[in-house]
């Protein structure tokens, strides 16, 4: 380390000798607006502190000198800098033509100033049209240019201007490793690129103001608390002015609805700013009790305001850059900063086309506290820049060298990515359990809650509401946007009204029940309700084997037997909502009694209840247990014991299972002859035990024209929940249902 320090000192000594021992580097810093001054000021202070090496000339132009934008040149004077030249270069009009005319006016005035100052180097910041005029003038007059913050990527015309200045500049100070790689990829000489970090971070990371509450109260009112207000700063997007004005209007509407104290800063001087100010005045922002509208806030005070805010919203580069130093949540709207590197505190709303989307982002971000980010600097940029300036050899030729390395991509968090996995609350009312889940658009169960299904209507409805409210609250924490509630329940359901008409004996007190109204009223969300068999078919259509299949049938083999029919891609309900009661297809006139009151139904043979009934009979006759099986005295005999016994060679248990599989197979044959589907999906816990038996019956009993049907076992773990979710997701994504 000592060796390299000495080497650096030796190089600086050689440069001083080349430049002439008594020659100080004459540096012209030109500042155009309040934003670039916050980056240039730390460098100016550093240059001023070393008069033995540098002479500083300050040129002020652009919006600094306009009253409507706060006459911000005064803060330069307050910082005790002598302003050498003031240039009025802004042509008012705030439209595209005015911007072009402003560049032209600056190009007319700057040559005279540069001729008088004769600087060795001009320091230019950023991507403003004023800065382009500066860089153009200096380059054509063979004056060296040091460009601050080149190589970064953002939206709108700023990208083009920034990269144009890069091509004109001789030296580059960048803030991030990616920006450095971009500069190299743009053919800039690596030896003339300094990765220093952002100069403003030198001030940000050392900013400690114990009296920040007085600053907050001065700008926002006496009754405001930390983390309980918003800072809004939004500029026009010059490549799409009309859309940016509409977006600003939606932002103000969202902020009004969000009902938090908000400090709104006026936009910059770009084309479209006048229309944005008109929007503010049209909505009465300057007189609204929740808003404070200001033209300018001194940077030292602005730092404290954003550091203790509950959120910052807008499209200013300050939000995606400087605010990360404090971990303050940021909502970046639109495309103006697209491509910039950001910390995890930034949530992008690139397609900010609705008030609800912006409001949702506010709900996600407001009041959070993120880890502080140092992507753009570590607080030591200015010493590096001063050292870089000292190393410049004025005798070197100005001609630039070029190279062609690869460029790295940048990926950042985006609200549209979050909203691609828009979610549904799925509710499954089973005979034993009540389950609620947050299900994403891709069928991922993000969070699941399970409780025993209460025996009474009142307790059941109360538990559904409680679990749904809890899940909806948790959805915000896991960045899921709930579009609605889908409910899967046993029994006959009127899906148009959201009413359970009557249920099976497995769910008590569950007839003539309006589920839609109380749940929708409590959650303020749309609610869909359907039979569990239908939901299983919908789950297969959206997430399972039925995806893209025009005609298929799903059979659920569980505690009972149910199903759903998809015909020409749509679910069949029937005239009285009784279609697809597949468990009650009669396969024997004198078969066992079914829970529905009939005899010989598939459910009476092949359901879990039927198998349990047969297992109990065998157990009572001491014919169930075989070698390798054991049961505790208190253990309840179940269908699982029957299946286990059959696997271990119990011929009576095996005969019962074969009979059940045959009954199910006969039912499937009837379905094939009635509906002629191309696919039969067996779902539920017993599906894998029945699939071969069903295929055998089809081969023996079905007409040859339907024997080619595919019979498969579902690969969905939770078809009822996924089907309930698809009720919501299919509708909200405009699928006909």
TrEMBL record:
Pfam families referenced in this protein's UniProt entry, alphabetically: Epimerase_2, ROK
GO biological process: one example: UDP-N-acetylglucosamine metabolic process
Domain of life assignment: Eukaryota
UniProt entry tagged with the keyword Metal-binding: yes
E.C. no: 2.7.1.60, 3.2.1.183
Similarity comment text for this entry: In the C-terminal section; belongs to the ROK (NagC/XylR) family.
Stored NCBIfam families: NeuC_NnaA
Subunit structure: Homodimer. Homotetramer. Homohexamer. The hexameric form exhibits both enzyme activities, whereas the dimeric form only catalyzes the phosphorylation of N-acyl-D-mannosamine.
Name the record gives this protein: Bifunctional UDP-N-acetylglucosamine 2-epimerase/N-acetylmannosamine kinase
Organism, as annotated: Spizaetus tyrannus (black hawk-eagle)
């Amino acid at each position: 380390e000592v060796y390299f320090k000495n080497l650096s000192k030796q190089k600086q000594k050689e440069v001083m000798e080349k430049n002439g021992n008594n020659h100080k580097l004459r540096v012209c810093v030109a500042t155009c607006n309040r934003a670039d001054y916050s980056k240039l000021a730390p460098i100016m202070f550093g240059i001023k502190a070393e008069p033995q090496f540098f002479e500083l000339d300050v040129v002020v132009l652009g919006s600094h000198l306009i009253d409507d934008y706060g006459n911000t040149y005064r803060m330069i004077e307050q910082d005790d800098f002598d302003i050498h030249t003031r240039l009025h270069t802004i042509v008012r009009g705030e439209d595209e033509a005015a911007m072009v005319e402003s560049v032209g006016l600056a190009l007319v005035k700057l040559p005279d100033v540069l001729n008088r100052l004769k600087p060795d180097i001009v320091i230019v910041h950023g991507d403003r049209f004023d800065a382009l005029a500066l860089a153009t003038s200096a380059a054509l007059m063979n004056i060296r240019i040091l460009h601050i913050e080149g190589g970064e990527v953002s939206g709108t015309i700023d990208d083009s201007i920034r990269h144009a200045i890069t091509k004109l500049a001789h030296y580059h100070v960048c803030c991030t490793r990616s920006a450095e790689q971009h500069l190299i990829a743009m053919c800039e000489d690596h030896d003339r690129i300094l990765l220093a970090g952002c100069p403003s971070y030198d001030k940000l990371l050392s900013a400690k103001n114990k009296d920040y509450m007085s600053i907050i109260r001065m700008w926002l009112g006496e009754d405001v608390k930390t983390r309980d207000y918003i800072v809004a700063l939004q500029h026009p997007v010059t490549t799409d002015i009309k859309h940016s004005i509409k977006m600003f209007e939606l932002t103000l509407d969202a902020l009004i609805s969000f009902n938090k104290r908000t400090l709104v800063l006026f936009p910059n001087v770009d084309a479209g700013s006048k229309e944005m100010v008109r929007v503010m005045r049209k909505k009465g922002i300057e007189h609204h009790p929740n808003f404070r509208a200001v033209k300018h806030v001194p940077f030292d005070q602005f730092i404290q305001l954003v550091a203790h805010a509950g959120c910052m919203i807008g499209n200013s580069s300050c939000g995606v850059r400087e605010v990360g130093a404090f971990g303050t949540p940021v909502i970046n709207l639109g495309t103006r900063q697209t491509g910039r590197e950001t910390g995890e505190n930034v949530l992008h709303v690139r397609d900010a086309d609705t008030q609800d989307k912006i409001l949702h982002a506010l709900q996600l971000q407001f009041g959070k506290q993120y880890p502080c980010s140092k992507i753009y600097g570590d607080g030591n940029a200015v010493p590096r820049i001063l050292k870089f300036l000292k190393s410049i050899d004025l005798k070197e030729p100005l001609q630039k060298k070029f190279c062609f390395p690869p460029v790295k991509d940048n990926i950042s968090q985006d609200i549209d990515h979050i909203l691609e996995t828009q979610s549904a609350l799925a509710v499954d009312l089973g005979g034993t359990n009540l389950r609620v889940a947050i299900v994403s658009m891709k069928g991922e169960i993000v969070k699941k809650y399970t409780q025993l299904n209460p025996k009474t209507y009142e307790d059941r409805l109360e538990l559904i509401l409680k679990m749904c409210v809890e899940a909806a609250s948790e959805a915000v924490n896991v960045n899921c946007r709930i579009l609605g509630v889908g409910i899967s329940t046993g029994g006959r359901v009127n899906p148009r009204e959201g009413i359970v008409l009557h249920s099976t004996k497995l769910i008590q007190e569950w007839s003539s029940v309006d589920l839609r109204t109380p749940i929708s009223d409590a959650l303020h969300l749309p609610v869909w309700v359907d039979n569990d068999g239908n939901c299983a078919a919908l789950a297969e259509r959206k997430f399972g084997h039925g995806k893209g299949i025009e005609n298929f049938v799903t059979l659920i083999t569980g505690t009972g037997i149910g199903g759903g029919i998809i015909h020409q891609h749509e679910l069949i309900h029937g005239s009285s909502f009784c279609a697809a009661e597949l468990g009650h297809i009669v396969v024997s006139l004198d078969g066992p009694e079914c829970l529905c009151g009939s005899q010989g139904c598939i459910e009476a043979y092949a359901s879990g209840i039927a198998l349990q009934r047969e297992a109990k009979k065998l157990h009572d006759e001491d014919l169930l247990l075989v070698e390798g099986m054991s049961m505790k005295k208190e253990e309840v005999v179940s269908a699982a014991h029957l299946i286990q016994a059959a696997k271990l060679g119990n011929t009576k248990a095996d005969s019962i299972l074969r009979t059940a599989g045959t009954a199910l197979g006969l039912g499937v044959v009837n379905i094939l002859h009635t509906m002629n589907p191309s696919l039969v999906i067996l779902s539920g816990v017993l599906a894998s035990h029945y699939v071969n038996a069903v295929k055998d019956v089809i081969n023996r009993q079905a007409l040859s024209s339907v024997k080619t049907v595919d019979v498969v076992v579902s690969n969905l773990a939770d078809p009822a929940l996924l089907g309930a979710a698809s009720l919501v997701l299919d509708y909200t994504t405009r699928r006909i249902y």
